[in-house]
Amino acid sequence: MSSEAGNVIASLREAIEKRVREQVLRHSKIDPTGDRKKIIDIQMKQEREKLERLIERNEDNPAKVEAFEVLIEWLPELAQQIKNR
Predict the structure, then answer these.
(1) Number of structural domains, the chain?
(2) pLDDT tens across 18-49, in order?
(3) Residue 62: HSE in the Cβ half-sphere, 13 Å Cα cutoff
(4) What is the pLDDT of residues 45-75, one digit of tens each?
(5) Which domain holds residue 78?
C-alpha cells in the first residue's frame, strides 16, 4: 500500500470514528438510559453498509475497493475501542 493510500485510509478512519462518536453521543443525549453498546453496534452496521455500497460503486477501481475493505476489517476494532470508553 502506498503512502498516499495509507493517508487516505487514515483520513477515512478518522471521519468514520468522528461520525460514529457523534451519533453515539447524540443518541445518549436523546435517551440517557439507552443501551450504549447496542447503539454502537447499530452504527457499526450502518458504516459497514456504507462501505459495502462504496465497494459496489467502485468495482472498477481496485485501489479504492482495497481501501474500503481495509476499513470494513477495522470496524470491529473501532467498535471495541468506543465500547471500552
Answers:
(1) 1
(2) 999 999 999 989 999 989 999 999 999 999 99
(3) 1
(4) 999 999 999 999 999 999 899 999 999 999 9
(5) 3-83
